[in-house]
Amino acid sequence: MSVNIPLFILGHPRSGTTALAQLLNTVPEVACLYQEGNLLYRLWQTLQRIDVLNEPVCDLLMDFSVTARHNLVNRVPKKDARKLLFPQDAIEQLEQTYRHGLQTSHDPQEIYAQVSTAFFTLFARNAKARIVGDKVPDFILIPEHITAPHPDSRVIFIARDPRAVVHSTLRFNKQCLHLFAAPSAFAMAVSFCLKQKGLNRFFADFAGDRLLCLDQEELRTSPQAVARKAAAFLSTPVPPGKTSGIPAPETKNRQTEMAPKDKQAVTAVACAFGVLDAKRKTPGKWREKAEGMHELSCCPAQSIPQCVRQAATFFRESAAEKNELGHTLVQLADYSHKRADFHRASSLFRQAVAVIPQDPVAWYKYGTLCYDMKQYDKALFCAEQSGKHCPNTAYYGFLQAKNHYLAGMTERLMGSTQKAERAFRAALKTKPDFSLPLKMLDILQSQKANPL
Asked: Considering its fold, how many domains does the chain have in total?
């Protein structure tokens, strides 16, 4: 094996990826970011935007720099966990690599590969580790893209029962708003299955000796055994007693806590999508809904309106059922957006906001898609609609700030500097510690002081 080996820890949200990263950090030759660095995933998403290389270089660098400095340097490590920090000079080298790529390359994928290679090289050098790992739940959306620049990379995947994942996600989302989640077991089951089917396709093509699949239940009950298995996969020894202090991931008992209707919904979806054995018995109403959503997930983009109308016949006219349909459409649309399938995502978002026109998350996500597609008038409209329907509560506070920031970035690219400034200030008023609008105001002030 080569000196610097990138490792990607993949798993659905709430599957134990953080616990595994902490566990691997006890192995001397391995270093993992146990909190989401989010730098590479966010960079890949940014570089998929239509005509992205014509955006101001200073804006692109600002987003990258804030993400790197906030997630790789400034975070305080959790108790009893080794958090490997990037020093300032390493961040500066990453920024220089990105700047050079933006100034010299016309290929976004080439720029991504250059930065990703620099990221793992600097990480290994700083951590003095042979194997360096990153883990972001959304990596499961684009596994083929994050591994492409690294032919020697390794992947560890943590599997977990879809019902347990959905149950944990629903509990998580009740505590505070998380944009990846929806308050619907059916919608989150569809999200799980879309990602799992994509992962299965990736695993079929990924070299077998570069992939290790683990089970979350084993990680919970036998962390030492998992550590030995992972270390053997990475060809590195585990010192005796090193893993004894690592806590197992916290889990909830879905068998006793999960509502029966939620278990039925998840089982039906997983069977319809081929993630669970289709022979399992599920109630007819859930089976029809699940099969309708599976057909929608596979249909050509031009057939989406027709497939949505057909799927909608399996949902009653009540507000709860409409919300369930709308939230599911948002999950389908968001998956396509994050896979850079913009045309499909646009069609699905249009259907979603027609079903749940007062849902602020649906409008915000639709707005980010329009921004990525350079449909600026639509992006502003979506941000306005999301803000209009955001309850004035702490739970939705960050979403409101993100709406202002989206509007500010859109106005900025439309050339409306004063409107952009007002939007960024509104974002800071809503959430004073929001770094991105603060840095954009610095850029605008600097450009005023030093006009071209």
From this structure: 1
